[in-house]
Design goal:
This protein is mainly beta. The protein has one domain.
Length: 150
């Protein structure tokens, strides 16, 4: 099951303990419904860029490269609102989460919120009271973040 988890042992987000955020749909369609949606990896060099006036050729002084991914977790039931809010605050405070993709290679990442990013919470289905969350995270291991589902 695709999930995000962290251990807020100090109670930084108002409650203490392990938080595992998933949508609880592993029994639906053989677990396909529990996958992350719209997983899009990225690789961004960070540093000032300039364009030569004479040639028009760009150059960059690279400090680092951020390797990350943007993705959505859909169909989160309303009884998980507390876990959603704790996860949102945890990431916005600059803390890491464990991202378990449950993809074909069982990839697991430790990741932080990407610079200038936010954690979105949206009411996806007003009738069934299902939510979705969007994430833009960077890998703490400074390596690409693929996620491939069969």
């Amino acid at each position: 099951m695709a999930s995000l988890s962290f251990n807020d042992s100090a109670g930084v987000t108002g409650a203490a303990g392990v938080v595992t955020l998933d949508n609880g749909t592993t029994a639906i369609a053989g677990g396909v419904a529990s996958r992350f949606a719209d997983w899009t990896p990225f690789q961004r060099p960070i540093g000032p860029r300039a364009v030569s006036l004479g040639t028009g050729v760009p150059s960059q002084f690279r400090f680092r490269t951020d390797y990350g991914a943007s993705f959505t977790m859909n169909d989160i039931p309303n009884f998980s609102v507390t876990a959603m809010l704790r996860t949102q605050e945890w990431l916005l405070r600059g803390n890491a989460v464990t991202v378990t993709t449950s993809d074909n290679a069982s990839r697991v990442y430790t990741a932080y919120l990407a610079p200038e990013a936010d954690v979105g919470i949206t009411l996806q289905d007003k009738t069934a009271l299902l939510y979705s969350m969007t994430f833009v995270l960077i890998n703490s291991a400074a390596a690409p973040m693929p996620c491939v589902y069969d």
